[in-house]
Amino acid sequence: MSETTLSQPQRNIVSRLWNDKETRSIIIQIIAFAAIFALFFYMVRNAVINLEAIGKDISFDFLWQPASYDISQSLVEYTSRSSHFTAMIVGIINTLLIAVFGILLSTVLGFLLGVLRLSKNWVTNKLAYVYIEYTRNVPVLLHILLIHGLIVHALPLPKNAINVSDAAFLTNRGFFLPSPEIQPLFWFVLALFVMGIIFSIWFRSYAKRVQDETGKYYPVFWISLSAIMGFPLIMYFLLGSPIDWQIPELKGFNYKGGMVIRPEFIALWIALSCYTAAFIGEIVRSGITAVSWGQTEAASALGVSRGRTLSLVVIPQALRIIIPPLTSQYLNITKNSSLAIAIGYMDIVATIGGISLNQTGREMECMTIVLLLYLTFSLLISAFMNWYNKRIKLTER
Amino acid sequence: MRVTQFAALGAALSLTAMTAQAGTLEDVQARGELNCVVTTGVAGFAAPDENGKWTGFDVDFCRAVAAAVLGDGEKVKFVPTTGKTRFTVLNSGEGDILFRNTTETMSRDADLKLTFLPVNYYDGQGFLIRKELGINSAKDLDGASICIQTGTTTELNLADFFRVNGMSYEPVAIETNEEGITNYSANRCDVYTTDASGLASTRAALDDPSAHIILPEIISKEPLGGAVRHGDDQWADISKWVVNAIIIAEELGVTAANVAEHAAAAGDNPSINRLLGTEGDMGAMIGLDKDWAARAISAVGNYAESFDRNIGPDTPIGLARGLNASWKDGGILYAAPIR
Q1: Which end of chain A is more exposed for a tag (fewer CB within 10 A), N or C?
Q2: Which residues in chain B are contacts of A253 at CB distance < 8 A?
């Protein structure tokens, strides 16, 4: 309180409190918090009263009842006799599958687009520009419907399938691919692969130590690559290819055997990835542009090659700018995967938040589950990206 | 569709106690409009015509209730829903009554808290398939891709049918009948399955209906009827007896054309007199006036008239009465008497 307030005792206490900047902000915060809490309380109470009025209670027992419906894409054992809970697990896996594959493809495409946008070649530059502007200015739902429509309408029926060297078959019911059947000898190959990874990790730190001490430089990347991929591949062929490939065959209506990627998955995956890649492209471009050109010039003045300038000077600094907005794009792709419902891809919203909800009439329970699941996924992705961001941020010495 | 679902949930959250419970009749009368939950479009049952006016067999029952309650069969606001959103929309109070090719089941009645009205169409689940595939029985469908509306009883019947017969299939989930037609036309699925009546309607909407057949097997019982929310018995009674009145009108030979004449003065037939309020006051028992049934019948005609106009043999849908013939003509359509 200042002296002016004390010298005017006739002004009432409310206006005095109000005129003090600090007290005022506290009062406003209390009011805002109370209002939000009251609104939330009112809604919950209202929902409870309305549910009670029609005699519905809140109960999660339905999760253990048989779901009674079939799901077309399921990576775990699921039949119509499985419980709603299992159906939810199937939905979670399908959502995560789209999220993970979407994040991978959009990142690769996005970095490519970002680099193309910086290209000095006029044609590549403008092509990337046109692609980015078109893709990110059309709602992602339209991309999904367009690609799904293209697959379903343009690709042939199973009996006229596009035959890719008698192993893979492309149809409007999905892409039928050979599935691997692993023979016992394959485990040797796998063991060699794991040993390759362990060796690479050790070799990387060894090479760094040697370089620090003597300045001698090893081609770490190529040596690691041959350890991880090269030796296992040689072993694989020496052992006589110990994987049997089960080729899909046309039987009746559809192909049987092998594995299938459904049009719904492809459409959702490609559409979400292409859409998000446009945003990532711009993020990457802004990140690279933000690294001062003087640093590149300085590196080349020291005789560092262009490639190593990029990988040792520009990209590490650009990443610090790229990672935070990239995180929100990863969150977007995960949340946008719920648009799956438009084409009938069986994600969380379609299984537990859709069919289970409808067959059991448990709106509150199902929607709460769906909400909490998305929240969990988003927080996990954020946590991971924050950890990564901390790891690569500028270490001040 | 997701939007509707969330909107419905939002509505359930935010509407006050006014949405629930008794007083639906007062609400409807105060509003001057009946909110009727229908499909997003199944030709013959409920679909907007070329002028945007909703027509169809289910629509007629909406109009009959509106005529009985509000005196005008046009005072209906149609709320189109998918198979998934229909019950949420009804239970949240967005709709007053539901006529949406809906199968009556025990869990919907007891667990989803619905009160079902008398069955207005006895149906069963069938399969629509292209003739060129040369399939004559549902037992030969092993391995087929099947389009199926989510959130329906047909979805559950299908799973049971294939499991019991030891066959596999690929379910292609769709939300609405239009989506089903699109996917089936594009050959995304070999078979479209839903109630046989819906298949007849779908077949009529295809480019070349004669290239498709409905397989002979009917794999389930689907008694289709209207529904209202639990808890408002008066409203349930009104809805129930309007449906019965439409069915009884056929039995008694009362039509849209002659109803005014019958209702003008009491005649020889006490059943007709009770139905049309020229004798006794049945309407008062459900909170309406004497002419409630006369208004409903003059708005849409009796059961046979509505059936023939919307889905009968002379329409593109071309359904025969079959089970749905009046009990007097060998069918099982049988309404409790008004007395």
Answers
A1: C
A2: 133, 141, 143-145, 190
Fold exhibited by the domain A84-146+263-392? MetI-like fold (1.10.3720)
| Residue A104 identity | L
B-chain residues within 8 Å CB-CB of A338? Answer: 2
Q: Is residue A97 a contact partner of residue A369, using CB atoms and an 8 Å limit?
A: no
Cβ within 8 Å of residue B154, ≥6 positions away: B125, B148, B193, B194, B195, B220, B222
Residue B190 to residue A253, Cβ atoms within 8 A: yes
Do B229 and B119 sit in the same domain of this protein? yes
Nearest CA in chain A to B232: A54
Q: Give the chain A residue nearest B129 (alpha carbons).
A: A253
B119 and B129 fall within a common domain: no
Give me the domain span that covers residue B153.
Answer: 125-220
Q: Is A145's Cβ below 8 Å from some Cβ in B?
A: no
Residue A72 and residue B171: Cβ atoms within 8 Å?
yes
Q: What are phi and psi of A234, to 5 degrees?
A: -60, -45
Q: What is the DSSP letter of A257?
A: S
pTM given for the model = 0.80
Assess if residue B324 is contained within a domain: yes
pLDDT in tens, A285-320: 999 999 888 998 999 999 988 888 888 888 888 988
Q: Which residues contact A282 (CB under 8 A, 6 or more apart)?
A: A114, A117, A132, A136
